[in-house]
Amino acid sequence: MFDFNFNWKPEMEVGVSIIDEQHKELFRIARNIEQLVITKCIGVQSKLLLDIVCDLREYVSYNNYVEATFMTEWNYSGKEEHIRQHDEFCKKIIGIDCKRLGQSPYKVLCEIKETIQDWVFAHILMEDKKMCQELKQKGYTN
Ligand SMILES: [Fe+2]
Question: pTM for the complete prediction?
Answer without folding.
Answer: 0.94
